[in-house]
Amino acid sequence: MPSRQSSEMSSLTFAPILSSSFGRRLQNKMKEYMTNGAQLGWLIDPIRHQVHVFHADSSVEILDHPPVISGEPLLPGFVLRLEGIID
Question: How far from 70 is each of 41, 67, 75, 83, CA to CA, in Å?
């Protein structure tokens, strides 16, 4: 019989990712971070194979199936490879 903790972990691991309301909450949270001074934010959606890039000027760029994302110019030389995350 699975423990309550493992059952809750399963729910937390899988259910929220598939929920559109969870995605909206994450987007709202990211906008809050940006309002409070963050300069760059990445919201990675492994279900839709997208990355939402939040910029300091309040613009949001949506990348479809990007192989990498870059932190330029804010994080010179930083590149996050998305292989295995969104493919």
Answer: 11, 10, 8, 14
What is the chain's length? 87
Tally DSSP H helices, then E strands, for the chain.
Answer: 2, 5
Q: Residues 22-69: pLDDT tens digits?
A: 688 888 888 898 999 999 989 888 888 998 899 999 999 999 999 999
Q: Judging by beta carbons within 10 Å of its beta carbon (0-12, 13-18, 19+), is residue 54 exposed, middle or buried?
A: buried
Say which CATH superfamily domain 4-81 falls into. tt1808, chain A (3.90.1570.10)
Q: How many CB atoms lie within 10 A of CB 20?
A: 8
Q: Return the domain boundaries, the chain.
A: 4-81
